[in-house]
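Final report, closing paragraph on structural work. Over the funding period we assembled a curated collection of sequence-structure pairs, and we close with a single example.
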Amino acid sequence: MFTFSLTIVRHGETQYNRDKLLQGQGVDTTLSETGLRQAEAVGRYLRDLRFDAVYTSDLQRARQTAEQILRANAGGTRVEPVQEPLLRERGFGVAEGRPKEDLKNMANAAGQSCRDYTPPGGETLDQVRRRFKDFLKVLFQQMMDDHGDASTSGGSPGPPATRCQRGHASEERGSGTEGGSGPEGGVHVLAVSHGGFIRVAVKHLLEELGCTPPDGARPAQLTAPCPNTGVSRFLFTLRRAAGAVELTAARCVFTNRKEHLEWLKEC
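Its predicted structure, as stored:
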């Protein structure tokens, strides 16, 4: 049984973001100049974390952001990023490449909210949620195979809730300008993805997996849209049970953190 941290970062700004155009999966754009600076800033923010695994959506805007984060890393990260299609943005079908206002109009015409509406050829929210659940399954198995057995070989780690609380306390002590120190034991994972996908993922973790929220945090605040290069962090405790990997505790440390973007205003 062991605890690790998952840091989720949204990609930097693209010109489509600036112009309020939908990208989804079919429009594979690169970062704008502002987006590159945002990616460099979040890289500095996270520079002292040594990541044991790095996953990124295989779309260019996410891959570029991951590259900038790793380029700035001073924590000794030596792994290559894994391009993971499961982390892609939600597919918006016929609405991709069109103004976001068009999606709102299509939803209104269908008598649905914009968030719940699925354009022809697009992904439903449930399909996006299933993709995230598939990613978690792969991630949990990989972490347990790579680190779980080693973490238990030296003795019992104690009750899972206690370990999760200790990790949370460590995060809070180190959650300043360098992006936090992570849980005791030092196993860290980075995932770079997209705004729509991250919002679905966070809601799933909090509402369906029963992830413990930060003290005093409002649900609407935690599940608000993630800004470009916004940072969220979760702690997971895993164990093996009957030959399978089981999640025994989960905690949200923070979501949508963006103070690193304040540095850009000072430049």
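Residues 125-152 form the longest helix (28 residues). Residues 153-178, 181-185 have pLDDT under 50 and may be disordered. We thank the funder for supporting this effort.
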